[in-house]
Every structure is written in structure tokens, then in C-alpha cells.
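Blackboard transcription, Thursday session:
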Amino acid sequence: MAENIKAKAVPGTKPPPMGADKTVVKAINLSGGIFGACPAHVDVKDGKVVRIRPLHYDSKYDYDSFNAWEMERNGVKWRPLSKSVPPPWGLAYKKRAYSPNRVPYPMKRVDWDPNGERNPQNRGSSKFERISWDEATDLIAAEIRRVHKEYGPLAILLQCDGHSESKLIHAPHGCSTLLLDKMGGFTQQVRNPDSWEGWYWGAKHVWGKGFIGNMAPAENIVVDITENTELLVVQGGDLETTPWGFRGQMASRLMFFWNECGIKQVYICPDLNYSAAIHGDKWIPVLPNTDAALQLAIIYTWVTEGTYDKEYVATHAVGMDKMEEYVLGKVDGVPKTPKWASEKCGIPSYTIKALARDWAKKATTVGHYFGGGYIRGPYSTEPARLEVILLGMQGLGKPGRHHAQIAYMGMPKNITWDQLQYDIANSDTSKGFQEYSGTFETIKHKDPELHERIFNPHRGTPQAWGKQLIPKTLIEEAIKCGTDKTLNFWGTGGHEEEPIDQMVKYNYPVRKGDIRMLQGSTQNNPNLKHDDRDLESTYYKVDYDGVPIRMVWTDTPCRQTCWGDGFDIGMTIRDPQIEFVLAQHPWLENDCIYADIVLPTNTYLEVDDVMPCVRDGEHFQTMLNMRKAIEPVGESKSDFEAVVEIAKKLGMEKEVTIGRTVEQYIEGVYKGMNFDQIVPYEEWLEKDYMVIPVSKNWRNLPAGLSEFANDPVKNPLPTPTGKLEFCSTNLSKYFPNDEERPPYPQWIEKGITHDERLSSSRARTYPLLIITNHPRWRVHAQADDIPWTKEADTGKVRGFDGYLYEPCWIHPDDAAARGINNGDIVRVFNERGSVLCGALVFERIMPGALSVDHGARTDIIIPGKLDRGGAINLITPKGLTSKHAAGQATTSFLVDVERVSMAQYDEWRTEYPEAWNREYDRASGLKATAWVERGSK
Amino acid sequence: MGKKVFLIDTKGCNGCYSCQIGCKDEHVANDWTPIAKPQPEIGHFWFKLQQKVRGTVPKVKVAYTPRICMHCDNAPCMDACKHGAKYKRDDGLVIIDPVKCIGCRNCTELCPYDAIFFNEDLNIAQKCTGCAHLIDAGWKETRCTDNCPTICMRMVDEDSSEAKEFIKKAEVLKPELNTKPRVYYTGLPKKFIAGTLFDPVEDEVYIGAECSLAGAGGKYNTKTDEYGDFWFEDLPDGKFKLEFKAGGKTKVFDDLDTTAADINMGDIPL
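(Written on the board underneath:)
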């Protein structure tokens, strides 16, 4: 490592804070995976958490030694704060640890008898009884043995991916893979790119693989936007919501800084989202998922007025001729004029022209933070591709012109980046380094056994590595295949796959001779060139046959409230083909209810762990020694410990633990990542954290695609032509006749997969379009039981009955037309079912649209039909993004809303008294004991 | 010990509620007697973040206003307390002594800032203490200010240069009551008049159109921007006359009144 990088210790340590006898450090973000964020101090007294507060980076080190970055525009300066800026639910997280919603002990469904009647039809209806860890692990081990013997290892489906608390060793997701991988493998549920489907299934075919489909490289775009961007168009994403789960609230400070230094911010979204509400210089309300019409009309305006960068397009892009023909109406007879678009998207045609001209005149960046109305709805490939084309038409990669996942990428690098550059320059290039980790991959070379133990559980999120695969969006379809049918899909949806993977037809069950992608591709090795033109060189052939799944093991029990057509999810898991469902989770919520055995796991407050917080988006990056704050609540164990308990019964303990202790893992990770070169191990243990100084060379990295912009021949994109493909070579070759994802992006009014437009005959019955944003007061399904976030004005709506309903945003005009008042209990519905919400009637949503944040905890009153918890995903479309794109389409679809009458309310209350009167805590909501029939032994 | 003041720039608030939550994290189920007994789990807002949605689609803004006990130097609640339960510390913070309070409720209705809450279980009145228990233990921040990611709210010494500068441009809530609050605000939401000017024949917005507003508080001039939008912000309550000039055409609105609410005039054909 470079010289003089050691952080200086401040002499003397401060006394423990008021009212505490112990203080520990934790990463309190909720995005999970191998990296954390939002370091915080947790004060503890007598074994109870007193408070959780931001970490002051300078409490044990000298701020000046961090080499803080600085950015400036128009005399306004921005520097990192000396404290972390965690999100509100993180600061309230002790309520989550002590929630009455915690699974108190291992439980078995009362009418599930593995040696007799299994009653799968009662999953989600019948209750649970308390059993011991010993009994539970005996039953689980016996089931694993039986399924392996009768059907083979691939008959077990592992659902172990997605967001979670940040724990490296006690990974909330995927510890089950440590066991089953060593017992012959498993069927993997492959997490789809659930917050950015459009870029993954669409934009990848314009600019190549990118980073999980987003623009890449995206280094240093924050400083470049600061210095050069004149107009920031934020299309759908919410900078005051979604960054919270990943990295906390630094993005908020960045948006304020850009406000102050004069970068104009225009927000295009159906709702006045939380960022638009305070940072927006202009809000352009757009009907949900009609952004493609707006984008096509902008292209039309630029083409007809000659105001795009023709020189750049000629040298950097292919397919402009096709786009031009299409927008001018030469393909389908319909010119994509602003007037045409206005009728689709609800934006006045004069505003569309004004936006097109302002954009053409100024250095413009399109900003996001995942999510929003178009990137995860039906046919999201189209607006995503059009966005890249718009950027391409105005010189993508030139100063101030980027696609920006704002502050998620493109912040100054820390000194481990210098180390990475040194290693790449001076060592065997086949070694490979993980992007953004700096030094995590070094463990792989120093201590492969430890790397596998630590890394494998986290692999489930970005990679498809199971021996048999099912995209997360297709689990129910797979179950419905029974034991004699085959499910086809194109592309696994694994985040790090090459675009070419989407051209590959996969089978479930997998068959001998099927082709699969080679592991260890470009993700881990920037020097390994891949070639999209040659399918054969990227894939190998499978030499085994798969089997239908018979058992489900989930540590991710939130499908109903986070994926599509949730009511169907709850009904399909009752299929008798699924003989055993095992859930491990800290809270008895959502899909846990559908399990046959539930194991109580615990939170980050209850374990010793370690966490590198080294990704972009915080003031400083840190390495945390996350000592245990409190003893495990109830009979809980960590997710890792739970798997070890099962492994013991199968004689597999050593294989899972690699015979090491948690202390040894922590030391191995710290030293394995070379952090002891910055702060000695013992000193770090004593201080519990270290700040990784900012690289002195951080400005040297070129911004975004600037090198491509400067010289596209020398610096080609990873596409078949090396250029931006407005018309995709691969899609033209493999899916020339796909009307839902054509070779170049188009307006899709309806198709075989979706019929969710206002022009649909369905809209006569369901005339409103609803968006289901990433939640402001949760992270997807996480943290819906914190009482204090519910008290925010947009937190929950307390009904006349005292129940806390999930808010449904309704414009006053739409509310008045339906006799709905602010605070009423309302029913949001379509033919897929009904979800009860609390009406929030205000001007933050455009007429004709509704908004319900996704991820509320389900409270099913009538299985398959009615939910009281406000889990809007229960009634989202079933279909994929489109026929050949296995993404989810869980926002922007047709519904109606009505006020729940007293007669209706009384009918439900009397007909379903048990469901309606579940044990309920006035502050935090449903209690776990609502589902326990026999709690005492 | 210097006297404390709270400085709040509401325009720097992003509405994350970490302040309101930090107060609960500190006080719910934690007993800081003699400064404060535990706050009920929900329903008390010793720190209340007020949200106000202003305007109509598509000219809408959200204003957040942090509200706490004003720690008045001339506190009505202190005058009302007949049991010696309220006292003012040397640092200016007003405390309800949780032991001396007998729950007579004289003060709860009286506070003009709705800052006092009644704890039914403990039978005492409670409110923001300025985290006096932490200040006494050497903290420089209260929980609400420490949790604030934008540093839009601070507690500082009254005689610091920072406080003096801020107070010069700041205002207090309900100054007419002469309660002498120790909480100072900038950026409190006033009123706006906004809209969009367009030419219905050409189907184009007017860019650079003259917009002249006259009425309460004086005269204001602006021009429409690239989107044909005009914004008059931070207006007082009152009656206004608005005149537009563009493309040789003129349009006048002389009956605008901001007293009840902000005004979005919508898309105006000219």
C-alpha cells in the first residue's frame, strides 16, 4: 500500500456515553450482501439497547487523516461530514429487535406430519406449535435425507437471495448453500434484477453488459455532474427514499448541494416523490409507465428540429436510421409527435417540446436510484432502452452527460483502489479482482477456504450458480409444471450475466446437453475480455438431468409482498408436490406463515460479525468490527448458526464451519482484505472501526463513458459492434420477430404478456394506473413493524378501527369522484384480488394514478382474495417483463379503488372473525403469537 | 454554561423524521430522571416534524417544519404551574420536573406551541428537555440534531457567532405572544403563486414572458422559464394583481388571494 496512509489515533478515549455500559459499532443499512453501510454506534445498558446513533468518524481518529474529497461549483463547496447519515428506520432498529413480531422459538405447523398427513392445502391457514431446536433439526435433517434419497439433491429449492441486514459471517441469506452445495447441490432461485428490470433486459442490448445493466464504467460521474451538468432529469427514481436502504442519506446531501450550486432538477414521475418534493425545480407528472411515449416524442422533436448530436451518433451508434424511420411514422404510419405522446402520457404537448429543447440545449444527465414507475413495470425494456438512446443522441459520456444511479456509483475512490491498480499492474492478471471491493478478492488468493465460507452465501444475490435454476419470477410456474412438464425461459436473470445469456433458452428441470454460462467471467476480472458474438466460447454443456422440486427452504420469506401476483404465490405453495417448506427468519411475517417448520433467527444486534462498508454512497468508507450488542432474543440463533445446527444432524458440521470460530473468521477477513496495512488488527479490534482514507489520486479516473465518447474505436463498448446499439445486433439475430422487445425500442400498447394500458377494455372496470414504489418507510418487506416510522405523516393511516393501514395516495379529484375522504379505509382491487389501504388524499399524486408503496406485511383475510395489510404486490401482474425477458412487472398496472362501506366492513368482520381479529399490537402491528396455537411445551 | 438556542433552517430539511425518531429512541423505555421519565411508546411528539403539502398538481411543494418545546424565556407553562414542577436551567432549557409534577394538566392546554403532552400511565406532563441529561453528561448535540443528516437543525450557544448571524435573519413562531422562544427559524413556508403560460394556437409555451405581481408587501417581477413556468415564492398572505405580457398580448388577474393557500394558476392560455 501507499505510504503515509495510517489514520492517526486521537489520544485518550472518551467515557461510555450517558446511561450505557457498552458501546458497539454496527452497519445498520438493509441492503445486505457482502458489503454494508451506515455505520452506527449502539449504546447498551444491562444487556438492553439504549440507543442507536450515527457514528462520528472522528470519534477515534483524526479527520484530517481521511484525506476528505471536496467538490465545488459556482463557489459552493461540498465535503464529507464527520458523521454517518443513516436512515430513520436504522436509527429506530431496536424496535425491530424487540418486536412482538419476532419468531419466539422453533415452530411446526400443527397439522403437518411428515410421517402421516402433511396437509399442504392448509399452508397459510393452520397455525403453529412450539417445538425444540433439537426436535426441529431432527425433522429437517430427516426430510433432507428423505428428499435426497427419493428424488435427488436438486429436488430441494433454495430461496436465499435479496436484501437483508448487513452481516458478513451470519449472512441472512444463503447460509443454506454452504450445507447443500457439499451434499450434491440444489435448485437455485435466481434473484431477478428486481429494481432495474428495464436496464437489465433492455439497456444491456444498447450499451452492453454495463454494471448489472446500468452504465459502466460510472466512475467519477458525481464530480463530473457537479462541474459540468446543467440539467438533471430525474425519471422515476427517488433520491430521498431508495438510497436509504443501500447507503443512507448522503444522496440527500448531494441533491441539496446540486440545488445550491444551480444545477436545475426536473422530475418526471406520476407522484411528487420525496426527492421531487424538496429538490425539484420542476415536476412533470407522467401517467404510470407511459414514459416511452414521452421519450419517443423527444426523439421526434430532435429529429425534426435537427437538434441532436449527429456527429456523435454517426461515430458512436448504430441503428439511428431505424429509430428515425420509426418516430417519423414510416414503420407503422403513426408519427410519434408530441401530440401523439401527450394522449398517452398525459403531459401537454407544449411541455414535451419545451423539455426536448431544454435538454438539447444543455449538458443533461438522467438521474435515478433504481425503482420508479417505468423501470420495473410491463415492457420496462422499452423506456430503459429509449433512455440510453436519448443520452446517446446528446453525446453520452461527454462532460456532464451521463446515466447516473446517483451516488450509488461514481463517488471518489478510497486508497484500496490505489492498491487494486498496483496489483493489476504488477501481478498475474489472471488473478482477478472484484469490482468495487478493492481488496475483498485478495482473500480468495490468500485463503480460498475462508473465501468460500464467507462469500458463497452472498453469491445467491448476483450470480446463478446452482446446478438447476429457476428465475425468481417463475417459481410458481415451475411448481405448476408438476412432475411431467418443462418450463422454458431465456436468461437466468443473474445480475452479473452477459447480455448474450438472454439469448439462451433454459429448461426447468435442467436437461443433459443444456448450455450454461461459464463461471468467473468478467465480473471478477476486468482484464478478461468477453465476446458477445460467440455463444459457444462463453458456455458449456450440462452433463446431468434435473428433477422437479419437492422441498422449499427459504430464508427470504417475502415473495408475496415483493414479487408479482402475490395471491397466486400464497395459493401455489399449497401444492402437494411441495412436501416440505422450511423457513428461517427473525420475524413471523409474509411467507413464513406458509412454512411447515419455522426456525427463529436473529438480528445484527445479537451476533458478532465484521463488515466492510466499502461501496460508493457514503461520506467515508469504513471497516467495522461489529461486536454483539445484546444476547439473542428468545430462542433465536443466527442464520448461520441455524444451518450449523441442521448440519450437525447430518454429520456435516465441519464442512459448513470449516472448523473455525467466529473470531477466526473476523481476523481472517480483516487481514485477508489487507486492512491491517492501514490500521493494525489489535488497534482496530480496540476501536471497533477504521476509516479508509480517500485516494489522493481519485480525480484521475475518467468520468463515466468519457473515454468511449473521446475515442469509440480505441475504447469500444462491450456490444457486438462496439458502439451504442440503438438497434440491437443480438435481438435482431435471436428474436427478430419479438413484438414485445423488438430489435429497437418501440411503444408497446399491449401484447401477449400484458394488457395494462388505459386503452385496454379492462380499463373500463379498472380505470386507474397504480405505481408501487420502493417504500419510504421500509426496505421492501423489511422493517414494517417499527412503530415510530408509522407515525410519520406518510407512514401509516390509522383507520377508525385502530388498525394501521398502508397509505394509498389518491388525488382529490379521484377521491371526490368515489366519495373517498382522507383517512378512509379503501379497497384497491382488480381481477387478481383486493388489498385494503388507508386513503391519503392529497396533491402529491396526479389525477388518474394511485400510489401504494410495495412491501407492506401481509395480513390475509381471505386466501387468494383479500388482504388487510396493504401488500399491493398481491395484485400486481403475473406476467414477466415480456415474453423473452424474465423480469418482474410489479408496478404501473390497472386497478380501481373504493371506500369500504360499513356494511362491507361488518360482513368481513363477521364472516372471517378469526382472521379479522388476529392479535394486534397498537404500535407495531401483527404479533407473532397470532399464529401460535400451542405455545407452551 | 452558555445559554442554548436552537437554529432551524426548514429549507434544509428533507423530511426523514430521524429527529422525531431520535427523540423516541432516547426517551421511550429509557428513564432519565431527574430530567425526564420515559415517554409512551407512541403518540407523544416531544419532537414533531410537521409536513405541509403546498399547491396543486403540478405546482406542488412539500414543506417540513420541525417543532419542539420553544424553551421560552417567558414561558406560559411556567407561569401556569402551581406545583413548582417547571424550572428554567441556567442554559435556558425549560424542564418539567417528573417527580414534582402532579398531573394537574394546567399546562398541557396552555402551551401556544402544543409542545406539552400528557402521560396517562405516569400521570405527568412531559415535553422536550433539550436532551438536558445528555448535555449534562458532556454531549454537544441533542439526539434530534445528532440524527439530522442535513444539519438543518443545531443547538448552539446563544452568544456564538453562528447563533448571532442566524438570528439576524431568523424568525420565531408566534412572536406576537411575547413568549421569547429560544427556537429560531429560517425558511418557514410562506405562500407562492405559480403557473405556466402557453400559446394554444402555436401549441408552445412562452419563454421569457413578463410576469408582474403587485399587492401585499409590494411589487414583484419575474419571467417565465424554459418550460413557460413562473414562480413567485415567499409571498405574504394577502391580495394580489398579476399581469402577463407575451407576444404582444396581455392578460391580467386581479383577484388573487394567498390568505387561504398557495395558488397554482394552472396552464394559462395566452
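Lecturer's comment: The first helix of chain B runs from residue 18 to 27.
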